[in-house]
């Protein structure tokens, strides 16, 4: 019943988007950032001092410790809000939370240090230029490099388990940004070389002919050979998990920014075409949780995937021209207008303080299903700020 009601409510989104479209992008950005400041002020009061917000479900806030992979998105979002509003309170709250997060700079338990440390300390250094924040990013980059496996020329994502020998997931492309930034800002050139090697291996092994990506590629560490290609969060091993396609498009666009390697731009463009011309992508450009999900159209959307798409497409528009460039910007705009409607965006004081609704963490694991997620808010606000910077 919940899915049917949700699908019916989203059918109204075209009408709501049309109403929102009467606003200019400048007005839309201002409206969203003003609401974000108020929502995150409320959110900051709900979360214990030693935790990070994770989601809000069944009327309850669900928080995480610093080890959890999303722990950097909350301070990162606060910093984005501060970048626009110059609110001292937003900066102060971000810095308070980052004091607890800093210890993660030496964590080598998995590959998520880029998400945790660059979204937070990386943005902090960009905005305030405090040497300490840069030092944290450098330390985290060196820690992440310890998960590089020369035999497969990749960073191992998860540790060995009963299911996987040496798994590498498409999400890992996102963590390469921290390594590249470190290498370009005084860190070891080895960090950049690791990022390039990982991107090249991903390019070779993660993609199908139609530019869709597998979620997990498992390797034999002794030989470097691919053992299997699977999914952990998608509908099937052979399906195109929606957020995973966003990680791929964003990751290769970002790698082109640092390296100017034409192969990376070609890959990002190919993934973009797969997404925006996919017959299952709804008119409002907010995808179902998997492009091959059973039950389409009577299944859940993933707002977090849409937010990642918008941000990535806006950067991809910086490296393309003509009708192709326009198409990327137009799809991103459609997403931003869609996510600014009542169908997807919370009203003041609702949603536990989060900005966006209707994201999907992992349906196969039955976790974080149809709830707000910190990274949905983060990439939505990032996309709004990118539009303001590049296209206004």
Automatic annotation (TrEMBL):
Substrate binds at residues 112, 171, 231, 243, 247, 362. Pfam families: Glyco_hydro_88. Residues 1-19 form the signal peptide. Keywords: Hydrolase, Signal. GO terms for molecular function: chondroitin hydrolase activity. GO terms for biological process: polysaccharide catabolic process. The keyword Hydrolase applies. The active site is at residues 112, 171. It comes from the Bacteria. Belongs to the glycosyl hydrolase 88 family. This is Glycosyl hydrolase family 88.
